[in-house]
Amino acid sequence: MAGLIVGLAVMAVLMTAVMPVWKHTVQREKEEELVFRGEQYAHAIGMFQRKTANAYPPTLDLLVQQKFLRKKYKDPVTNDDFVPLTQASQAAQAGAQSAQAQPGRGGATTPGATPQAGVPAGGVIGVTSKSTDESIRLYKGRSHYNEWAFIYTPPAQAVGAGVSGGATAPGAGVGGRGGQGQAPQRGQPPGGAGGFPNRGGRSFQPAQQGQLGQPRGTGR
């Protein structure tokens, strides 16, 4: 009987030591699954936008009905549905954060403010969790599950994409083929091979190469 009591005591101590490790491992697995399922929603919203000219789906059920999403995933942390994120809710959250960061500023956006111009007013833009518990890992700098916003972000285009190489320099080749019509270079007389104008209406012809230094003829 005493041995049984000692054995139970040892098992209790071991369970006390193992339980936090086991709980920590289970929580990490749930976080991995939360990221996977949340990004599945974000990916499905991105495919829906590409098909509908950047429109957002009105509900999450529509993503499943139109085969953009395999099924309506549950939140593994709460075992409940994900919370849909809309542009109105994101605008209200951004306004609340701005008001907290800058108290007393008249230009701060108030909660419930309308979205920016050119952005669709309705539709689901992503999902998040209902749980307000603190997470083990950080997701995009956030440490609470309800702050993990799984939103589709379109890839940014490279700067200068679509510009063809080898563009002609400004002013090159103007005036016709073979460089005709270009401005005369420095030191070249106007008109190309013509002479320089001189006083009295005469023109001075520049000496040809090889004629310099030759004596003038006396054929007069």
Oligomer state of the chains in this structure: single chain
Structural class: alpha+beta
Number of helices: 3
In order across it, which strands form the biggest sheet?
A: 3-4-7
Strand content: 5-15%
Please report the total strand number as a whole number. 9
What are the secondary-structure elements, in order, as H or E?
A: HHEEEHEEEEEE
Brief write-up:
This protein has about 220 residues and is of the alpha+beta class.
Task: Provide structural commentary.
By secondary structure, the protein is of the alpha+beta class. It is 32% helix and 13% strand. The chain is built from 3 helices and 9 strands. The strands form 4 sheets. The chain has a 3-stranded antiparallel beta sheet. Strand 8 and strand 9 form a beta hairpin. It is elongated, with a radius of gyration of 39 Å. The termini are far apart.
